[in-house]
Structures are given as C-alpha cells and as structure tokens.
C-alpha cells in the first residue's frame, strides 16, 4: 500500500495456534516493499518459533517455502 508518494508498505500477519502478529515492511516502491517482506518472513518465522517453542508448517511440511536470506551472501551477489 502506498503511504506517501515515495514510500510504500507491505503489511503481513503471521498466525499461530496461540498468537497472531502483524508486521509491515517498507520500500521506495511497491516491488521493493514486497521483496523486503518475502525476505524477512523466514527470519520472523524462525524467531517466533523459537520464542513460542514450536514450529511452522506449510501443508504439513516443515519447509515453509520462504527463501532463507543471508545478508553476508547477498552482499556478494548470491
């Protein structure tokens, strides 16, 4: 969603059995906000799973299908 002329946000919600957390990522345009969101979701899922001592599953599989982004590798074009 566009907040101002040069500022976009991509809101998302992560729901578990005992909680729901709402987040948003920002970007200079809609694509950048979406890419930031896709990259951070795996990190948020890992942190929430540790905090709540649980796991997230996607159609019964432990792999949630979100890419694991490693900042050190991204700096080198990976």
Radius of gyration, rounded?
14 Å
As laid out across the biggest beta sheet, the strand order is 1-2-3
Give a quick account of the main beta sheet: strands, pairing sense, barrel closure.
3 strands, antiparallel
End-to-end separation: 29 Å
Q: Helix and strand succession?
A: EEEHH
What is the average of the pLDDT values?
A: 83
Shape: elongated
How many domains? 1
Count of separate DSSP helical elements: 2
Flag low-confidence runs.
none
Number of strands: 3
Share in β-strands? 25-35%
Quickly give the structural class: alpha+beta
Helix content: 25-40%
Structure description:
With 78 residues, this protein is an alpha+beta fold. The chain has one domain (2-73). The chain is 33% helix and 26% strand. The protein contains two helices and three strands. The protein has helices spanning 30-51, 71-74; strands at 2-4, 7-15, 20-27. A hairpin with a 4-residue loop joins strand 2 and strand 3. The model has no long low-confidence stretch (mean pLDDT 83).
């Amino acid at each position: 969603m566009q907040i101002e002329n040069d500022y976009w946000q991509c809101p998302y919600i992560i729901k578990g059995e005992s909680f729901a957390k709402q987040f948003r990522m920002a970007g200079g345009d809609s694509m950048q906000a979406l890419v930031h969101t896709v990259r951070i979701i795996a990190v948020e899922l890992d942190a929430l799973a540790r905090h709540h001592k649980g796991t997230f599953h996607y159609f019964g599989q432990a792999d949630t299908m979100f890419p694991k982004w490693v900042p050190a590798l991204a700096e080198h074009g990976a």
